[in-house]
Amino acid sequence: EAQVTQNPRYLITVTGKKLTVTCSQNMNHEYMSWYRQDPGLGLRQIYYSMNVEVTDKGDVPEGYKVSRKEKRNFPLILESPSPNQTSLYFCASRLGGELFFGEGSRLTVL
Amino acid sequence: GEDVEQSLFLSVREGDSSVINCTYTDSSSTYLYWYKQEPGAGLQLLTYIFSNMDMKQDQRLTVLLNKKDKHLSLRIADTQTGDSAIYFCAEIRSQGNLIFGKGTKLSVKP
Fold first, then answer.
1. B1 and A59: CB-CB below 8 Å?
2. Mean pLDDT across B12-40
């Protein structure tokens, strides 16, 4: 089954404690992307990747890192999380017009 | 980057048609999407249209694309209370990046 898998789905953490949200797709898609969703602001892009070892900043990259060492995985890294990174995060992958989203990861930073 | 624009709210009566409008930014956008998000849920792809099309119809949904004005609309015929949700417009820009609008909250009154 074609899917995008994010983990964890829910996480409560504390300020400054490094965390990684994983994203994996099984469709051999080249394009992958991370978004955060906040009330009234829609989905804002954090980072995207057009292919392995190619990553670019989206609209809100500050406080985040990503890596794309292999095609299937695109982890989102928060080196030192802060409360303003409390949000709902979505990972997506795409091939042509076919878009797939993960189910979302709800992150709370205390 | 430049924003994909949508009106924030739309209220209609059950049985009426709803029209949700979107203005996108890149005249070279290849695909344009409409997503639906119900409260507490993830993103559900409703439909998408390729940029060489003017219209696409799928049951109660009609998508119109005006490339000259960079305007996309979603018409929902015979709107039901179950259609109440937030609707996001999204474009794939020429460099391959996927950008969302802030979403239109559709409220359907019985």
1. yes
2. 92
